[in-house]
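Thread title: Can someone regenerate the structure for this chain?

I was given the following input by a collaborator and told the matching structure tokens would be attached. They weren't. Posting the sequence so someone can regenerate them.
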Amino acid sequence: MKMGRNEERFYPILLKYLRQKGYLTEGYKDYGKTKFEFTRVGGKTQADVVGVKDIGRMYSHEIEIVAVEVKDREQVRVKYITQALGYSTFAHRCYLAMPTKYKDEYINYARQMGVGLLEIDKNEVTEVLTAELKNPNETMLAWFLRRSLKLVKCILCGSIIYKFQAKRIKRVNIFGKEKHLYVCPECYSMFENIK
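Best answer:
Regenerated them for you:
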């Protein structure tokens, strides 16, 4: 039986799987008017499915981004694993998800690359190999959060918030470049009261 190439049919299954693992899988655009799922996000480096989780302790705002490359194919290819690895510029964990059993040679290659493997069987997802924790580029991470997921980090407290909720502050630095900074509503109101 030849499989179709309709990977989108697996997106809801993977989104549900990530939500069960505690990841945020949807956001808001159009200033909070429109809800959207974190699928096919990222522009040129477009991940099929993405999740964001707060992994910080009580006094830290550390997050983890998971990016999943989905393939609707019968056979695994090295290039699929490499494509998933490419998400490490903005994601902490990168996965390949397919509706197939992974052969040992591909499991070993994925392990060497630090890419996790997810097996999709009907409506179930099984983690065959846990993704290695990557260290994404901070600039790319912030860009991906803001542009693709519509999330920003408060420059004062460090919390991650929806972009439409944040107060944007424009500043020109000593080099004459305009910079955009975001402040969460709580921090903004705290400083408003100081005036």
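Helices lie at 11-20, 78-85, 104-113, 138-147, 185-192.
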